[in-house]
Amino acid sequence: MISTYQMGVSTDRIRGSPGLNLDHLECCICHEILWKPVACQSCETPFCSACIRQWLNEYPAQCPNRCQAYNERKCPPFVAKVLSQLKVACVYDSNGCEEIISYEALDKHEVECGFQLHRCSGCQSEILKKDLNNHEVNCEAIEIVCPDCRIVYKRGDATKIHTETVCLKEQLRQLRNESKENKREIHELNLQLHEMHLLSPWIKEMKITFDDLPLTTDETKRMPIVYRGLKWNNMKYGYELYLSKKHPKSGYINCFTPGSSPNIAFFKDDVSFGVVTRNDSITFYSLTACAAWNDDLQLTITGYRGSVEINRHTVTLLFGKPQFILLNWKDVEKIILKSAGGTAHPDSGGLSATHVILTQLTIGPAD
């Protein structure tokens, strides 16, 4: 039976059916009363549908009665008629159910029966289905999520772990964090607006979002040595669908937004890019970066003219939160990016690594 067992109905459960010869209703595989029977077309012997499926898995196309081949048909009508006259005790009678059900209504009853045992999600005790809701309303081991502060605690620990003072302090902490995040986002928006004022109407030509690189659905690839008029060393890039599938717990996922480039660039530890021809130079306006695995990852950006360091900027990157960094460095020949430090983000699956994600670079010619 679907609700409680795979094979037939035990003869011990048959009630009030005097005069019926139950031997004719027995499955010759499980030797119980037929349940959802089908029959062999050749010998017309009925079997429980679950029993014959299991048999055929072991002996394909063979009838248990050694017919030449097993071809299935509906149960003979006279067998179905006799089965319909049976009255059967609920399988949960040992739990207190006193219902006697017709054979045809048995499946529906046992799916809905209030005397089946369910496990409490808190204390893990087995409770009758009909009593489960009332039990879980009062069970001290049930976990509760506070709608105000979102702390998770067990009902029985409320007076220790989730006092009114604790709740208010947690709400205040969350508000402060949200305020910091809002200030950071406003600061970045102001930087981007400043860049747009500086570069408009040439910003589209200067912005590199890696959207013109070939899509790689099954791997990441190295950046071409020469790309967008610059020479690249140690930079890789990847496609949104591949990275989302390969690293579902990484910061890569948060870097793709509707309408953005399907590619992102990334590197581990260090990378460089710069002019192809000596004595050429560029203006490095900005980049947008975030950490792929760690929180508080240190990114150091250094600009060179020849072998001389002329600019340096260090910024702290967060896991999966792209950060706009405005530089406006002029007359630069080479840029080196280095990452270090940080700790594994709680959502990264415990992996700690110094990978940095780049979603855009804005680079123009020297003035």
Automatic annotation (TrEMBL):
Coiled coil stretches, renumbered: 165-192
Xref: SUPFAM superfamilies: RING/U-box, TRAF domain-like
InterPro entries from the UniProt entry: Znf_RING, Znf_RING/FYVE/PHD
Lipid metabolism found in the keyword field: no
Molecular function (Gene Ontology), one example: zinc ion binding
Ranges for domain RING-type: 27-64
Keyword terms of this UniProt record: Coiled coil, Metal-binding, Zinc, Zinc-finger
Protein name, as recorded: RING-type domain-containing protein
